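It would be a great kindness if you could assist me with a short task in structural biology. Thank you for your consideration; the sequence and its tokens are set out here.
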Amino acid sequence: MTFTLAEAAACAAGKFADIVHADKNCSSSRRKPAAAARRGSLEEGSFEETFFRAPSPGEVYSLSRLARSLCDQGRVLTREARSLKRKLSVRERSVAKMTALMLRVYDEFLKLARTCNGRIFPSYEWLAKAAAVSISTVAEAIKVFVEVGLLDRQRRFRMVAVEGGGTRYAQTSNAYRVCVPQRVLSLLPRAFRPAPAPHGTVSSQHEQPADEDAYGDAPRPQSAPGQLNKSPLLRALADLRDAIERRASDSEFRTQS
């Protein structure tokens, strides 16, 4: 049997393709590629002690009231822009994105900040269940809060063992920190802006750094997110703390007015 040059080349190419395809199938069954961590992620356990911050007395209630004021102001800005036929600025657009459902998500962040002493690292699934919203709403809310400045976020990864030996990167829950949105405070009426810290308090903080370091090194109590729902005593203590913070914040608000 004789072959032309073209037929011989086609036959050789077909056999080579079969060999390559079989080799790919074998290699894919032997190992799986390592999953890469998202850009900007830090390894779990390498930064949390300097990232997390315990809220000061009254700060949680003030942030809750501030977030609601920003949400209301976003609707006002949207109506004004529509009536005056003008475009919203970048800061105004970020505030206008806030919704009532997003505020429910932020309330869960504030609860964790208060009960867990500022150590906030819930999953999207946990937040969605606690706030009774969808996971997509949680993702959008976190994005908006970071834009506005109500929330700081740091992505994290961990090293996990893989079958056959070795390790790979695996994305884990983010670390969060609630904060005052300095970049958008000027959009609020003066009566709704938080009062600055007293001058004496700021001076004492700068004059006694050693005492602050000593308190910072002291062990801090931690509470699991779901522990409040299981213990009546913890719920009662949390309600008492809310009342004290609310009274302190209202007193501060009346002094400012």
In short: Residues 5-30 form the longest helix (26 residues).
